[in-house]
Amino acid sequence: MDISKSSRHSKLTGDFAEALVLYWLSKYGFECALVDHTGIDIIARNPHSKEIMGISVKSRSRTPGTADDSITIPADSFKKAQRASDAFGCRPWFAIVVDAKDTIRVFLLPMDHLLKVCPIRQRGSYWKVSQRYLDQYWSDEEIKIFEFRTETVRWWKTKPPNRVAGGFSPSAPTPPGMRVRTGRFPKTNGP
Q1: What's the mean per-residue pLDDT of the chain?
Q2: pTM, 2 dp
Q3: CA-CA to 93 of 20 to 30 Å: which in 34, 37, 149, 166?
Q4: d(CA 28, CA 62)
């Protein structure tokens, strides 16, 4: 299926990713809140360790052919996450959300571990998502992972028809004497 993303897709991807991570944390007993602060997007208390987490969410929605491209986390993201976490008395974490092919994957890990796994290079840190790296992440106990398999069961193939209750209508207003065929009512031969 061809995918044509909306002009606001990047913003919506970010909003979705933040809500998804927030939901998943809450589902598993983390007290958490979305915050509008430079450097972190979510503050959460881990019910297992009592640690307060300042989470920066990074997300990407990949088109066909780019599913294995790495996710660039700009170098200044780490400084911003550290400053914000210091201000709120929490440990900096990163959530990396990738929508590629038929899977949405979420990786959640402390910033210091992210920097060990993916050290900062010239432009930033590169979270790789090819199968080789996914296998490494799966075996790393410090990286928390959840994923969803997605399937578009039914969607538009072309421009959708102009619909009215129970049937189709022409694009222009219906002229007098013309009836809209619905399949529910018998045809009429006139006004």
Answers
A1: 83
A2: 0.78
A3: 149
A4: 28
